[in-house]
Amino acid sequence: MELPEVLFTHLYRCEPGWSMGRRAHPDCQEMFFVLEGRGSFTLEGTRYDAEAGDVFLIGPGQVHCAEADPSDPYVYYSLHYSGGPTSLGGRYPSKVRVEDLSEVRDVIYKMEAEKARRRMGCKEMMGAYLLQLLTLVARAVHREDTSSPLERRHRWVAERIKEYLQDHMYERITLAEVAEQVSLSPHYCCLIFRKVTGYTIFQYLNLIRVERAKALFRHSHLNVTEVAQELGYKNVYYFSRVFKKVTGVPPSRFVGDDRKIV
């Protein structure tokens, strides 16, 4: 089987206000992975919301542009390629949702390390990593195509809950309020969310609050106490425990040492 060829890759952490003007690539395909943050992506005149876990599939000659959220700008990985196995062919949707983003991240970081080293067989190794990414995307498409109505309903519930948590992360959120958004009992709401995402509702809330905190540390001059207050934490020590549990380091160390790391 002939490996697809990687033509260009770009891993980029956007600044607030970042945007990418309209463009098209006539001789290659592109995958645009959103790894962190939020924003929008427009493809052939259709505007899509973009958040971590979304992948946009751009065909040759398709016009596209992008814009990062001003308060939570995204980290993206753009990959241009040509060729590929026919078994992954077919008409893919423009936007695909990848549930296990850690698996995608792992392959991307390996690709970037391989590109930086430029050792013998680099081209073939990059093609092999690209094949892994194409396979992960193909599996995501297949999962969406073959899921039952109940599974699609559960995914809709989980996405609606995520949207509510994103929109209200600065406020005090109760389980009853979340359940009301999807017209379910709190207990059933929790079961569905954990089944779809692997997290409890409040674990996920802590994750997005910590990601927002990281963005504030990188793009503002707020200190740890001010960021905790901005995110609705009345106790800065509790915020620090949550931050360390999610990232592995306390916020004071992140601000001092790790805020520039993608």
Question: Quick recap of the structure?
Answer:
By secondary structure, the chain is α+β, with helices and mostly antiparallel strands.
Q: Characteristics of this structure?
A:
alpha+beta, four-stranded antiparallel sheet, Jelly Rolls, 9 strands, about 260 residues, Arc Repressor Mutant, subunit A, 2 domains, five-stranded antiparallel sheet
Q: What topology emerges from the helices and strands here?
A:
Blueprint (H helix, E strand, L loop, with lengths): L4 E9 L5 E5 L5 E8 L1 E6 L2 E6 L2 E5 L5 E5 L6 E8 L12 E3 L3 H17 L4 H25 L2 H19 L7 H7 L4 H12 L3 H19 L4 H7 L5 H12 L3 H8 L4
Antiparallel strand pairs: 1-8, 2-7, 3-6, 3-8, 4-5, 4-7, 6-9
Helix pairs in contact: 1-2, 3-5, 3-6
Q: Can you walk me through this structure?
A:
The chain is an alpha+beta fold. The protein has nine helices and nine strands. It has helices spanning 101-117, 122-146, 149-167, 175-181, 186-197, 201-219, 224-230, 236-247, 251-258; strands spanning 5-13, 19-23, 29-36, 38-43, 46-51, 54-58, 64-68, 75-82, 95-97.
Find the count of extended strands (DSSP E, 2+ residues).
9
Distance between the termini: 34 Å
Which second-level CATH architecture of the largest domain applies? Sandwich
Radius of gyration using CA atoms only: 20 Å
What fraction, in percent, of the residue positions are helical? 40-55%
CATH class of the largest domain: Mainly Beta
Oligomer: single chain
- What's the CATH superfamily of the largest domain, by name? Jelly Rolls
Low-confidence stretches: 258-262
Q: Give me the secondary-structure category.
A: alpha+beta
Element string (H = helix, E = strand): EEEEEEEEEHHHHHHHHH
Strand content bin: 15-25%
Could you describe the largest sheet, including whether it forms a barrel?
5 strands, antiparallel
> How many structural units, i.e. domains?
2
Which topology of the largest domain does CATH recognise? Jelly Rolls
Mean pLDDT, all residues:
87
